[in-house]
């Protein structure tokens, strides 16, 4: 019960069979309650049982009671009935809302059942007061006492692990572990209750007074056990979960993985088998298709817009080509073909299913006739043969239907995998190709570059400046951690914190809510945000946390270090429904970021420009692109804050921060080749780094002006970006917005919100830009931007240290 965390209802776009296959407690049993069946049917069943209990002909015996004229003599039997119903209610359904409803209903029913048991025990003790010598002398009495004690203990554990897991067990995870045993023990208690009832038929009171026979009680008990057994998710119970042990064959395969003759791509991707000379693209497909294996049962299921892909296959194919995803350009056509095949298979199932129903009706009629002939001892061999032939035909039709159903499910799974691998559609504002479009400049006039660029001075770089001023220490970091790490010391550390505080100040002033997100997330959530563990060249991009063999054997999802706070912020509403009236939601998050950054390295990426760990302030927002109307008793307001409006707001925040830092910038509309998977549109702001400017013109000094213009074109480096991701992330994270136009949940509609994200400050690159552009040769130091001085104790210039 501690596991019922409340992941909202999933609505796969493809077809109802795509509903959650692995609910909270495991695979659904054969008698799982229908998705849309109301709890009223359960209440009606309870009323029917109540009517049966009011009759003298019952399977479960009443307990002897001194208050024979009251209904209290049936309390034990009512408690058993309620316990059974509570067990059935707790079994998982397809949606989280039903899980929560089932959990609370289970709790309520168990409370009533336990009250019934307590009342019955009290009555028993009152009856036994007149002849205490008979207390606990029979098997029935001893079993009853033990069962009562177990019921009390079970209730206490259930309440503790659901309501107070941290207080009692130390953590929620410990409570979840206890929950599996709690379920198993509940089934054992039910068997003990039924055994106590069966033992009651052997008591003197029953033998001489009630005369209830043992066989109807056993029959009723077996029916109860059979009904409950069909609903138990056995592979999730602790006695059915076995630790995965390494077999000799697996050990051999692991040794092969370490062999120099194993395919390098397979070894990098850690695939559990060998394949010679696999391509990187094949590995990416394998890792993408297997990434969902370790998703927890309660994780939100991705819902790609398969219908739109199927209806616009050519559009999606060309989009893949434009965005440099050529290997995926054939997926849309494949999705369309598979969808057509799945539709045809569904239609082909209608005829055999109808035929099977007809045969089943004929078998029932024929079986009745054969049974009547057997009672009359006049057997007709033809009817027996006909009955056998019908059974055989029904079996053949069922086998054929199962094969067709299996193929259809394979088609749907393949459609889901292919659809999730496609990049987002591209905005009309995005230039096609690999050349960005310059939109404008900040603190920079392209016709009059800064004087310190004439001529370019490679020595004016943040590494030498930061080292000489004792702000940066790369040598110690190389010793402690390796290449790509650094120490910020003295005013360098103060600059980092000042940049973070200033960025937060600007964002919060505009109504953005501060958040400190986790740096560790589940890997499947990072992938849902568009961050793949490896790039198109099979180079590592995300650092994964190593799992123990025990966790791997139990199928626990893997975690990874986040490369940006965007992932943690997006995951805040994974699997949740956001009321439309609450949108837009705007968060600004501060986090440490971790990136493998396995790409090429050179002069332009030395120092702080490309590092493995850094601090960053990230802006992330959800918006509903459908205007929403909120009506109160006095006013009616319409919200029109769309993703595009938030995108502009993020750009405004970025421009304000960089402008106030007096950094020369240019704003770019990024082309399709640089968008990545999730963004539909992206704008970058680049800063001019003097150390990155290279004079490629060796002509005479007469052309110095032109030389400066040309040289400054190659000195830009990205410091911020802003992206519109439409519903790409929300579809993969299961985040929905619920319309507020209806007052009831049943009539309200849901849709996927659009997400927008942008960098407020990437500390290392901005810090490097401040060192290079703020360097003043006359004073031998770096001028601190005025907006940062308040967070640096009023320091105006960072100069050399004495000694």
Automatic annotation (TrEMBL):
Q: Where is the Aminoacyl-transfer RNA synthetases class-II family profile domain?
A: 510-785
The highest taxon in the source lineage is Eukaryota
Swiss-Prot/TrEMBL keywords: Aminoacyl-tRNA synthetase, ATP-binding, Electron transport, Ligase, Membrane, Nucleotide-binding, Transmembrane, Transmembrane helix, Transport
Name the UniProt record assigns to this protein: serine--tRNA ligase
Q: Which SMART domains match?
A: B561
The places in or outside the cell where this protein is found are:
Membrane
List each coiled-coil range.
Answer: none
Chain spans, region Disordered: 692-715
Q: Which ranges carry the Cytochrome b561 domain?
A: 34-235
Q: In Gene Ontology terms, what is a biological process of this protein?
A: seryl-tRNA aminoacylation
Q: What residue range is the signal peptide?
A: none
User: Which CDD domains does the record associate with it?
Assistant: Cyt_b561_CYB561D2_like
| UniProt-listed Enzyme Commission number(s) | 6.1.1.11
Q: Name one GO cellular component term.
A: membrane
Q: Which SUPFAM superfamilies is this protein grouped with?
A: Class II aaRS and biotin synthetases (SSF55681), tRNA-binding arm (SSF46589)
Q: Which residues cross the membrane?
A: 40-60, 72-90, 102-124, 144-164, 184-202, 214-232
**Which Gene Ontology molecular function entries are recorded, alphabetically?**
ATP binding; serine-tRNA ligase activity
